[in-house]
Design brief:
It is a single chain. The chain is an all-alpha fold. The protein is 64% helix and 0% strand. It has 6 helices and no strands. It is globular and about 35 Å long. The N terminus is likely disordered.
């Protein structure tokens, strides 16, 4: 880990706020029965930002998060679990969702119609529920920011 690059702001909270915004967008898309690429992009990005918020809280530098973690959901989860091996913060459902979406999200498949995976995605309602529970748990860990 590098030395902290920006100590004047709580970037972990900023990552969390953005994750919560993507979570709300995910819910809106699900409610509108629009569960194609924008839905999955929002799910993936909410997971990414929530994991980065946890890593930032436990000492990771912002540049490490942007460059070394990039869009690797599974890598971010593993890095967090290495920092906090006894943590129960990432539920089994959230972990399954992270693993399911990690490769697609890292390759940016949800951004482009020609790359969008037409099969093998989880049920959108189940994914949204797992994401919402995950965001609620992470927000509670940060002192109760509203999901």
């Amino acid at each position: 880990m590098r030395k902290q690059s920006r100590s004047d702001e709580d970037l972990g909270v900023r990552y969390l706020r953005m994750a919560l915004e993507y979570g709300r967008a995910t819910r809106t898309l699900l409610d509108g029965n629009q569960c194609e690429a924008p839905f999955w992009q929002s799910v993936g990005h909410a997971l990414e930002l929530s994991l980065k918020s946890l890593l930032k809280k436990y000492g990771f530098d912002e540049m490490d998060l942007m460059h070394f973690m990039s869009h690797d959901l599974y890598g971010a989860e593993l890095s967090y679990l290495r920092q906090c091996p006894d943590s129960q913060l990432i539920s089994a459902d959230a972990s399954r969702l992270i693993r399911h979406l990690s490769d697609y999200h890292a390759r940016l498949d949800f951004r482009y119609p020609c790359l969008f995976p037409v099969a093998s995605l989880p049920d959108p309602a189940d994914a949204e529920r797992a994401l919402a529970a995950h965001l609620t748990a992470v927000a509670s860990h940060f002192g109760g920011h509203n999901p």
